[in-house]
Design brief:
Elements (H helix, E strand, L loop, with lengths): L8 E6 L4 H15 L3 E6 L20 H18 L3 E4 L20 E5 L2 E4 L13 H15 L3 E4 L9 H16 L4 E5 L7 E3 L5 H10 L4 E4 L2 E4 L4 E3 L4 E5 L1
Parallel strand pairs: 1-2, 1-6, 2-3, 6-7
Antiparallel strand pairs: 4-5, 7-12, 8-12, 9-10, 10-11
Helix pairs in contact: 1-5, 2-5, 3-4
Amino acid sequence: MSILDAVRSVLFVHAHPDDETIGTGGLIAYLASRGIRITLVTATRGERGEVVAGPLAALVGTAALAEERERELERAARTLGINEGFWLGEAPARAPGLAPRHYRDSGMEWIRPGLAGPAADSAADALARAPLTEVTTDLVAVLQHVQPSLVISYDRTGGYGHPDHVRVHDAALAASRAIALPYAEILHSPTADTEWFDLDAHRATVVAALRCHASQLSVDGDFIVHSGGQREPIRPSVGLRLR
């Protein structure tokens, strides 16, 4: 029996533009190929992310960077086969009666290789500083609007400790439980209690979607090259674990 048996629609919750492709691009492409309806909620515009050297480098620290990353996400979502996307804090991903809110990228600092922590200078309107109850009620609103069969987001570490990923996990899990929707967390290594999906057949689609995020990364063969020069293997395959 698979986690995806009888699933007709999935709602993914991610923290920043490009997370949907890096973390779950292969899974999204696979679900789309099966005709499963896919909704994406993105929490921030990645305003504090670095920018790849080149013509877009001038966008660092400007409002235009957020606008560019909105466009990049739209192109990547279309490439992967996502049916609809929403920004957290804007209807329908906003609790009824509350004015729209723009959750800002909280930034991060590396604690050690592979493990991030909160940035010391996050802004007052940063996602990681928002009350968990507010973020959760915003997600409850969009879950009630979409009524997916399954919610997919991060594990409790957010994958590598980024405070926005951790906040998204905490809120998405709480929102799912509040209205009794199944929640599956993303894992990138097989474990005994993980259902593993070998999705290398969708590598070309993932690569095409990665190329849409040109302000943040480039693709070199089988590797993602981040703006700071860090190299990361492209991993279409992924595991899911029900919580």
